[in-house]
UniProtKB/TrEMBL annotation:
Coiled-coil ranges per UniProt: none
Subunit record text: Homotetramer.
GO biological process, any: 'de novo' L-methionine biosynthetic process
UniProt GO MF annotations: carbon-sulfur lyase activity; pyridoxal phosphate binding; transferase activity, transferring alkyl or aryl (other than methyl) groups
One Pfam family in the UniProt entry: Cys_Met_Meta_PP
Protein name per the record: O-succinylhomoserine sulfhydrylase
This protein's GO CC annotations: cytoplasm
N6-(pyridoxal phosphate)lysine carried by residues: K217
Role this protein plays: Catalyzes the formation of L-homocysteine from O-succinyl-L-homoserine (OSHS) and hydrogen sulfide.
Amino acid sequence: MKRNTGQDRTITSGWRPATRAIRGGTARSEWGETSEALFLTSGYSYDRAGDAAARFAGEQVGMTYSRLQNPTTEMLEERIALLEGSEACRTTATGMAAMTAALLCQLQAGDHVVAGRAAFGSCRWLTDTLLPKFGIGSTIVDGRDPQQWADAAQANTKLFFFETPANPTMDIVDLKAVCGIARDRGIRTVVDNAFATPALQRPLEWGADITAYSATKMMDGQGRVLAGAVCGTAEFINGELLPFIRNTGPTLAPFNAWVVLKGLETLDLRIRRQSENALKVAAFLERRVPRVNYPGLASHPQHALAMSQMDMAGPIFSLEVAGREQAHALLDALELIDISNNIGDSRSLMTHPASTTHAGVSAETREQMGVGEGLLRLNVGLEDVDDLVDDLGRALDRVGL
Ligand SMILES: *Cc1c(COP(=O)(O)O)cnc(C)c1O
């Protein structure tokens, strides 16, 4: 009988997702602890000088330095890879470190990237500001329209980069169509899957090459730590991403890795309940405000597409009121839901993107992205949904909506 098999793919690949989330990647120490051990160590020691030389030469299995490897972090990487259905995963200190590494490790001067218009503010900064500084061109398209991706592809296009659902407009990209367009042209796709997570959407199954995460959001799920992850083939992760990360150093701290490991154990439960709550809150708001952008609602223009590639629509959506003044007044009238720009938390949080998360992009770019002055983004948490509806109802009454 074989036990402690969380690291053995011949066994874990037979496990269903819920089992992978609890046990995948677990590597027990000599003490047989049930919960994953936290290895807070920067270095490792060797019995003999020859062992150190052999490990550095890659001839002996074992760890050398925690910028390169750490047992707790490797447990998390194996667990995320199992949930994602990817050959390999590498974690990073933040979601933005994951996005930056996923792009820069495979691009060079003269290359070109096509990216979706709606994106996390810092992701737009990467494509619009950072890449051009290094001679890498970028074209921004309306990600909802596959034809725009096809038209924007050039001979030197190396990557398609997008989020779906996208932050904060909830634009949906047709994964099968857009990844197919990329494949036909030898272009790789990098999908920022932070909103859905592998619990609700697995882009690799639709033909994406690489997925990247802010694990700060749903994977931690309780607003505690920052973390990121990149998933793909072993060839890509070990051959292209790893040298970049090991030498530039955006390494995830073992403590944060441990927190996210614990978070993943409840990811499926949390994201399903939060999605149910979000659907109820969105249906309530739809009757009260001019516009609600939630792919789970039948009124969303891409509802059918979203539901064909996602199991549920997730905990996050946006709504539109008259302008900045009314948006701020609505936030100020809330008593339970926090004014906070984080998402993925078990607490309900609401923010005004134009003056917070997207304040760093120009007004013109915000306009192009669909981030208007009256847009609000809501992360629906695990509280009793009736308390959330009561809070929003009261706040809407106060601002006259
Ligand atoms: C939060 C977020 C990021 C950045 O992640 P950090 O962990 O904050 O660095 C990137 N993409 C999306 C879609 C996000 O929501």
